[in-house]
Amino acid sequence: MRTTTPRQDLMRGVWRENPVLVQALGLCPALAVTNTVANSLAMGLATFFVLLGSSVLISSFRRWVPGEVRISTYILVIATFVSVADMTLAAVVPDIHKALGAFIALIVVNCMILGRQEAFASKNTVARAALDAIGTGTGFLIALTMMGAFREILGAGTFLGVSLFGPGFEPWVIMILPPGGFLTLGVILLLLAAVEQRRVRRRAMKQDPTPLRRAA
Amino acid sequence: MTGGHMHGGGAPPPPGERASSGRLLVTLGGAGAVAGGLIVLVFAATSPAIEAHRAERLDNAIREVLRGPDRYDTLYVTGTQVSVDANPDAERVYLGRDASGRPTGFAIVSGAPGFADVIEVIFGYDPTTETLLGMKVLESKETPGLGDRIEKDTAWVGQFVGVVSPLEPVKAGRGTGKPTEVDLITGATISSRTVVRIINDALARLGPALDPNGGTPP
Asked: pTM score, two decimals?
């Protein structure tokens, strides 16, 4: 019952069904920790790791997990990978771990991850589940990094901590404060919607250059 | 007994395909055991590094606020008693010494709730002159861009070098030049006032115990 190619499994989550920008999932970390590029990258990579690990494991055991306890089992698997990521970050990059604070532990309740288990990994082969997780994780990482770059450049005048505009720049502090997360997400969604609308209109014009005359 | 109360939500499974209670228990129990084992393994593997990072951060901070002592001793304070014997219930202070072993000041760690969560600071204090040697924020979750200036604004942090105890918080620019004054940060009044209060409270609490000569040497 394969309906998609491996390429589609992989690419779907990256852009066309991007978890944050299209499906609006996982917005809590996307709004909360994207005040710098470094934090966004760390959050994106930690989530990528948890998603890939959980998808592979849950797909491997999908035949043996009864439906009645599947949600509890998924959460257990996800929470385990989150604990592993949490302790590993604390041991390897303590500064970033400190900056992300409680949001690493909160990856457990990122609905994007549970969503992929329930919707995909529990019903498909390990290879396809892995491709899907890689694609979705990459899409999440891209979305967070876009937001982090936008907010850090405007809100602090830096990129990855490197000053861009010199001392004369007055940072737009609201962009690295919580409201800046909402403003940034809104602006990015608006731009993407505008691009998408233009694309749809162009395609319609190409197929049928005289829609008005025909309709009349 | 089909364990009907254990349904994980969603549509009920089709009749005839219900897993037995035993199987549900084995699945969850097995998954829990594997998960627990994995977490314990990773904890054992990472905790030495995590502990080392914490100790290193404290060590760096002690050296920074004591302005590069030759070495320092850990002292344990209970009430007005200062001892060199390790005591988990006592409050720790760190006594810096120069190359000839003369005490140069105490580093004190203390905290209080700020605008968001507890702010923990470490500061160096010289009891002979009753002046501060420096201050560094160890732990804070203050608002990025506003409250976190208590640790990131170097000009503000620099004020604590040489200020005389007890500190007096004043609005930025309203100071009269007294050596006890610390300018608060506009937009971070609560956070900056909390830092001043933490230091004053710690010195009120520990001051009587801190001998200007550094207590009895071991």
From this structure: 0.75
